[in-house]
Design a protein that fits this description.
2 copies of one chain form a homodimer. By secondary structure, chain A is an all-alpha fold. Chain A is built from 15 helices and 2 strands. The longest helix of chain A has about 35 residues. Bound molecules: potassium ion (2 copies). Chains A, B: It is a multi-pass membrane protein.
Chain lengths: ~450, ~450
């Protein structure tokens, strides 16, 4: 790897470790806890990791266990983690792209990511402004609704509005309502802004910046933007339709709801795997098919350089295009009149298969540490942690210490691993002076 | 695709359909059934498909439900299916390789598969001889043991020896003992020949022929043989160690067994996912971690052009080498001083990801058709059918008709799909007169 890039690739995980350490220490102060004494180390570490890695899994009842000061700490940790991951992964991607462009400058590539490192400061400020505007809008709608329809006093309504707006846009998923959003399952003014915030945060700065510039000319969109927008819409539709089709008659979930509420609940629950961690219906009561689809959606996750996790929408749909080209016998993988380099295809495969391996290993570890845990809830919890989705069947708090440590490691690795692996792999290219002769084993 | 190859690629699935139809019809005769009347269509179709596709899943109690004539029908169907799949997939692979070599003859490739289509008849006879020798050896050991140690009359001992020898070497898994091999969990003379037969059948003719020629010179082995031998040993060790480590103290499985029996049982149960369908310990009583590992082993399966199923050992370990090269930043994927063509890498990825997609879709279908079935047993059953492994938690017979049809389709698609897809993909190459400019989206 180029020496100039080793530093950022190493600095990012250290910065996140530092933020987690500080948040853990502050959450261990007696002031952070609502009850007597202070939070135990593991509880504070889990909550801090979950907040900084914008996951939203929790081992405590968030509204009951932490004081208002604790909730402020969670908010700050979430905002730092979310802003950090969005900006740092964007900068890393730009560094990589700039570096590759310099190396290949004689090849006259038509790179059209549209962004450059020219003015890093401007990028950081633009990013912060976008976050501020989006979160303010969400907070205003929530505050107005809680004040107007639920008789919250104005100050409390504002605080609840701000707290959940930050959680939503950063794709974290802590809630200080009782039982996440289940009390508001039919309330469009609560569920819709939070869900739209989650979707907005899951797009990522490179695509947002490009859409700001040319959202009216889809024909000029980069591959990045095409895959992210098309892929996200596809996954939202899949989630929505699956929820409606499978849960419609489930008496423990959607069954008792009226039709408009069913539609809203399907939209919310179908979008949350993108990777917000809220729920307005209890996932643990859903059918196994819905859980299986939700696990798949969480694994794919959101856009690159966003607050969402998973292997990323671009990675997943790029692989779909690779397979499609292979089936049709096309020599090149072409997306919107642009050819995808073989190196990028191999990166996508590597990221996806490493993701599968981590999910499998994590599930085996969690099952080993937690006898009696059902297989699909272990898988659900592990993919939720790895993809920093934050959805849970409710077992997180009951896991033994080793199980909680497994999830902590998965959240950290899932948050930083795919981004850093992608950068490191893209930069780490050796050159050989000789090549071996070809041989073609039988596959399949 | 070349017109000369369209015919075999289409003829193979039709031949299997024909064999399944005939076996179904014969199994529906009253003479095939032990009890009154004749077997219902779906039961006969399931059993015929399971035998011809050398899976071994069953919806009936094989020793009780079918007459001796029925058992003979199952034996013949298994042998035709096993011989058919070994020879046809070898011939298809040779056709593909010859075709590619003709197309690329100016490239002076160092293809060293060591086989050619020169004398198809000789290949077919050699294959039949190998099967005959291996099955005779297994049958002799089993017969001697059943006669000597279990007081079976000689005729009955011989018939039981032949039946299970055919089932073992063809990687099918029907048993006419009560409850598969569970009555012989500590008997090395029964368990070992059957398990070695399963392993032998899972290697495949191309590798067996090459080993016959030069098993003493591993340095001259082809990539095919290196991947198959090294990969199979790796998977056998993984299965063995996982069984011992996880089940050692499980009071419902290995716990009550003495140490040598534990070792034998771990070897048998660890090797069966390769894809024999026997068991000497009940998989349904094992820990969830063991089941998860077994599902993974079944999904990978055995060697190409063998009686084993799955995505194949070569495909899986080829992908591991691709990822390893990617992580090290190597431009080429090199296995034993041979470079793997990009086209072959893409084929392996396509096969693996289509396999994942089929397993996921199958599991969703089975869960939809069978309310109350636990998620991981649905996955176990589906992967077992797709990989024609034949292991079961015992739920197969209780599935509703739609669930049984799902498994029938999975067995057929799993048996023929990967082989045909690999051939079709390898041959189906288009040429473009223009190429689009490159663009590099962010992945991960
Ligand atoms: K989240
Ligand atoms: K089998």
């Amino acid at each position: 790897m180029a020496p100039a890039l080793r530093y950022p690739v190493r600095a990012v995980p250290l910065a996140f470790l530092g933020a987690i350490a500080v948040a853990t220490a502050v959450l261990m102060l007696p002031a952070s806890r609502a009850g007597e004494g202070h939070a135990p180390f593991l509880t504070a570490l889990f909550t801090a990791t979950s907040a900084v890695c914008v996951t939203g899994l929790n081992v405590t009842d968030t509204p009951e266990y932490w004081s208002t000061f604790g909730h402020v700490v969670i908010t700050v940790a979430t905002q730092i983690g979310g802003y950090g991951i969005m900006t740092l992964s964007m900068l890393l991607a730009l560094l990589v792209s700039q570096r590759l462009r310099l190396r290949n400058r004689l090849l006259l590539q038509a790179e059209s990511s549209g962004l450059s490192l020219g003015n890093v400061r401007l990028l950081l400020i633009r990013g912060a402004l976008i976050i501020l505007v989006c979160e303010t809008l969400i907070a205003l709608v929530l505050t107005g609704r809680l004040w107007g329809a639920y008789d919250y006093p104005p100050g409390r309504a504002l605080w609840y509005g701000v707290f959940h707006a930050v959680q939503a846009f950063n794709n974290c998923g802590f809630a200080i309502f009782d039982n996440s959003l289940t009390g508001f399952v039919g309330d469009w003014w609560i569920c819709l802004p939070i869900t739209l915030g989650v979707i907005g945060g899951s797009i990522g700065f490179p695509v947002i910046f490009e859409l700001q510039r040319q959202w009216r000319q889809p024909s000029r969109w980069s591959v990045q933007t095409r895959l992210t927008v098309g892929g996200s819409i596809t996954l939202l539709v899949v989630g929505f339709v699956a929820m409606l089709a499978i849960e419609w008659t489930n008496v423990r979930t959607f069954g008792p709801l009226n039709v408009p509420t069913k539609v809203l609940a399907a939209f919310v629950q179908g979008a949350m795997p993108r990777s917000g961690g809220f729920n307005s219906v209890d996932y643990s009561l859903m059918h196994d098919e819905t859980i299986a689809i939700t696990i798949g959606l969480m694994f794919v996750g959101g856009g690159s350089a966003s607050t969402a996790g998973g292997i990323k929408v671009t990675t997943f749909f790029l692989l779909a295009f690779v397979i499609w080209a292979e089936i049709r016998g096309e020599p090149d993988v072409v997306i919107g009149r642009r050819r995808i380099p073989t190196a990028t295809q191999r990166q996508a495969i590597t990221i996806a298969l490493i993701g599968v391996a981590i999910a499998v290993m994590g599930t085996l570890l969690l099952l080993t540490f937690t006898r009696g845990l059902r297989f699909h809830w272990a898988l659900f919890e592990v993919v939720s942690a790895f993809a920093t989705a934050g959805l849970s069947s409710g077992v997180t708090g009951d896991l033994p210490a080793a199980g909680q440590v497994t999830l902590i490691v998965l959240m950290y690795v899932g948050r930083l691993g795919t981004i850093l692996a992608a950068s490191a792999i893209a930069l780490n290219t050796r050159h050989r002076l000789y090549r071996y002769p070809e041989e073609r084993p039988i596959v399949g």
